[in-house]
TrEMBL record:
<keyword id="KW-0210">Decarboxylase</keyword>
<comment type="similarity">
    <text>Belongs to the group II decarboxylase family.</text>
</comment>
<keyword id="KW-0663">Pyridoxal phosphate</keyword>
<protein>
    <submittedName>
        <fullName>Aromatic-L-amino-acid decarboxylase</fullName>
        <ecNumber>4.1.1.28</ecNumber>
    </submittedName>
</protein>
<dbReference type="GO" id="GO:0019752">
    <property type="term" value="P:carboxylic acid metabolic process"/>
</dbReference>
<feature type="modified residue" description="N6-(pyridoxal phosphate)lysine">
    <location>
        <position position="286"/>
    </location>
</feature>
<dbReference type="GO" id="GO:0030170">
    <property type="term" value="F:pyridoxal phosphate binding"/>
</dbReference>
<dbReference type="GO" id="GO:0004058">
    <property type="term" value="F:aromatic-L-amino-acid decarboxylase activity"/>
</dbReference>
<dbReference type="Pfam" id="PF00282">
    <property type="entry name" value="Pyridoxal_deC"/>
</dbReference>
<dbReference type="InterPro" id="IPR015422">
    <property type="entry name" value="PyrdxlP-dep_Trfase_small"/>
</dbReference>
<keyword id="KW-0456">Lyase</keyword>
<dbReference type="InterPro" id="IPR002129">
    <property type="entry name" value="PyrdxlP-dep_de-COase"/>
</dbReference>
<dbReference type="InterPro" id="IPR010977">
    <property type="entry name" value="Aromatic_deC"/>
</dbReference>
<dbReference type="InterPro" id="IPR021115">
    <property type="entry name" value="Pyridoxal-P_BS"/>
</dbReference>
<dbReference type="InterPro" id="IPR015424">
    <property type="entry name" value="PyrdxlP-dep_Trfase"/>
</dbReference>
<dbReference type="InterPro" id="IPR015421">
    <property type="entry name" value="PyrdxlP-dep_Trfase_major"/>
</dbReference>
Length: 456
């Protein structure tokens, strides 16, 4: 029998009380960052030889540190790509931590990996990829994009002619910054089609036509975006896929943000062609209501991912032998030891059902349309472009870039809202404008009105 540790029980109750308070509060503070020195002055030394004690440290967290974060689930946090994890997912995130599951190999993580795979089957079904396609959960979209492109490059290099070549990929300037970052890590060159509007097969063909003979030889993949982070624009996946097929190029779709919208009937057709992809990135921690962090990479052909990522090591052999009967997530992405980060998504899907997911995503899309109408009706505001997915770019007539910045800081300072400016490329010039991205289904029309009213 384990001795009952009273301190541990008390700490557990305190933590649970805090968690319940955090997830059930309807209007918590939006929070704002403070300087590291200020935080240090407020909390003092916390890492000491004897420890300061859990209760003391927890109080420091509650009083000084928790409020220096800007929770992404606030209904008026419409900056970057916010998030809104379900309570079910958050609760199971706690269970994921408490269960100490090593999620690399089936041998150790069968129960958790089984659940992840059930959630993954649903995600794959949304893409329309054929039988045999599957995926794994990653730490996020960056890791998913990197895993996909390394798979593509390794496959390309199976041809001895390319073994000593540095590969090249094509994407557009609408692609997420992580595509450039991952190209750097994978040491591949990148050519960007210079338009933020949706990438078409014709534009891709033009870009290929401008390559030198050597560049063309080294071109092995195209990264299209299924919902640009800045403006929610979905590339013309159908025509891009045709060019990829004709040119024998790996077709990757980065739908880290937009992938959640695959579940929404009202916009699903915009993704037509995604079923031709060789690999797809979707971030459940964006529009599938999972807590941080949870991304996913899906492959048409899992064997190619395994060839690229399966780690060999004598001390790993035991896992391979025993685990051969099951699915080993480590074999399909860059990470070995991994949290079963798809587990909270599984529990949330099982709890709510996929219809609720559909409704919640449709609500985000609807909020963007509502915001669009409110902006059109406002005498001082104009849409920069029609809302796309749940992104809305709009201008306050007469404002200079610094006006947007001041307004953002003022609203944030008051703890009222976080809405950040962005830039939109119009021809050769970049216009600074304001941007909404809706994820949280609890954001109300009134929230949007109040934010717009504050743009005086
Ligand atoms: C957010 C995003 C990423 C990066 O994902 P992380 O989870 O932040 O690593 C990649 N691509 C797109 C389109 C994104 O919106």
């Amino acid at each position: 029998m384990h001795k009952i540790d009273i301190e541990l029980v008390e700490m557990t109750l305190d933590v649970m009380k805090y968690v319940i308070g955090r997830v059930s509060a309807t209007e918590h503070k939006i929070g704002k960052p403070r300087k590291s020195e200020e935080l240090k002055a407020a909390v003092g030394e916390t890492i000491t030889e004897k420890g300061v004690g859990g209760e003391y440290a927890f109080n420091l967290w509650k009083e000084h540190l928790a409020t220096a974060n800007v929770p992404v689930d606030h209904p008026r946090n419409l900056a970057f790509v916010p998030a809104s994890p379900t309570k079910a997912a958050i609760m199971f995130d706690l269970i994921t931590s408490a269960s100490s599951i090593h999620g690399a190999y089936w041998m150790e993580g069968a129960g958790g990996i089984f659940c992840e795979n059930e959630a993954m089957k649903w995600m794959v079904s949304l893409t329309g990829l054929p039988e045999g396609a599957f995926g794994v959960f990653t730490s996020g979209g960056t890791a998913a994009n990197l895993s996909a492109i390394v798979t593509a490059r390794e496959h390309w290099r199976e041809n001895p002619e390319y073994q000593r070549e540095k590969g090249l990929i094509i994407t557009s300037i609408g692609a997420h910054s992580s595509v450039k970052a991952m190209a750097k890590v994978a040491d591949v060159d990148i050519v960007m089609v210079d338009s933020e509007e949706h990438l078409t097969g014709d534009a891709l063909k033009e870009a290929i036509a401008t390559l030198t003979a050597h560049q063309r030889k080294c071109l092995f993949a195209v990264v299209a975006t299924g919902g640009t982070t800045n403006a929610g624009i979905i590339d013309d996946l159908e025509s891009v896929s045709k060019v990829c097929e004709d040119e024998n190029l790996w077709f990757h779709v980065d739908a880290a943000y937009g992938g959640g919208a695959l579940v929404a009937d009202s916009v699903r057709h915009l993704f037509n062609g995604i079923e031709k992809a060789d690999s797809i990135t979707i971030d459940p921690h964006k529009w599938m209501f999972s807590p941080y962090d949870c991304g996913a990479v899906i492959y048409r052909n899992m064997e190619l991912a395994k060839n690229a990522h399966s780690q060999q090591g004598s001390y790993l052999e035991i896992f391979k032998d025993e685990g051969a009967h099951g699915f080993n997530p480590t074999d399909y992405q860059i990470q070995l030891t991994r949290r079963v980060r798809g587990l909270p998504l599984w529990f949330s899907l099982a709890t709510h059902g996929t219809d609720r997911y559909k409704e919640a995503v449709e609500r985000g899309l609807e909020l963007a349309q509502i915001a669009g109408r409110l902006i059109e009706a406002h005498p001082n505001l104009e849409l920069v472009r029609e809302p796309s997915l749940s992104c809305v770019l709009y201008r306050r007539i007469g404002w200079q870039p610094e006006d947007y910045t001041h307004w953002t800081y003022e609203n944030h300072e008051k703890g009222f809202a976080l809405v950040t400016p962005t830039k939109w490329k119009n021809g050769d010039t970049y216009e600074t404008c304001s941007r909404f991205c809706f994820i949280n289904p609890d954001t109300t029309e009134r929230d949007i009105e109040m934010i717009l009213e504050s743009m005086v």
